[in-house]
UniProtKB/TrEMBL annotation:
The encoding gene: rutB
Protein name (record): Isochorismatase hydrolase
Pfam families reported in the protein's UniProt record: Isochorismatase (PF00857)
GO molecular function annotation: hydrolase activity
Keyword field contains Hydrolase: yes
InterPro entries cross-referenced by the UniProt entry: Isochorismatase-like_dom, Isochorismatase-like_hydrls, Isochorismatase-like_sf
Keywords, in A-Z order: Hydrolase
Length: 145
């Protein structure tokens, strides 16, 4: 997964897209600890914004929506961790806020899936997103439009 994320970041940067990182803080990912830090393979460049969050949504109490509005951004391309928690919530909130949302196919992962294995759970969510909330595709196809 880290390879896909790294390659996607490189591709997005080469395409001139602004890359924004969102980092979660809670009792399991304590701010300032190694687990909280963004992995070095996908580390932000010095010029890239990082929004810290404490809720599933990347938008709740982070300033992300205001930042995107100020920059005139209308489309979001999403990848990351916690398919069934943070990613799902962020996609649906972004959709409700009027953003055109795209998700990198197989670009999300989960550490908890309950009765489903992670692959089935990710496929399930990608199907829901593609029918209702977001384009789910390879990054090169998303960039091409």
């Amino acid at each position: 997964m880290l390879t896909l994320w790294h390659d996607s970041l490189v591709q997005a940067r080469q395409a001139g897209l602004e890359v924004i990182h969102v980092r979660h803080h809670d009792k399991e990912l304590v701010k300032g600890t190694a687990d909280w830090e963004i992995h070095s393979t996908v580390a932000p460049l010095a010029s890239e914004k990082i929004f810290d969050k404490t809720f599933n949504s990347a938008f709740k109490e982070t300033g992300l929506h205001t930042y995107l509005q100020e920059k005139g951004m209308e489309q979001l391309i999403i990848m990351g961790m916690a398919t069934n928690f943070c990613i799902d919530t962020t996609i649906k909130v972004a959709f409700e806020l009027g953003y055109k949302v795209a998700v990198i196919q197989d670009g999300t992962t989960t550490g908890y899936s309950g009765k489903l294995d992670a692959k089935d759970l990710i496929d399930y969510y990608q199907n829901i997103w593609s029918w209702n909330f977001a384009q789910v595709d390879k990054l090169e196809n998303i960039i091409r439009g």
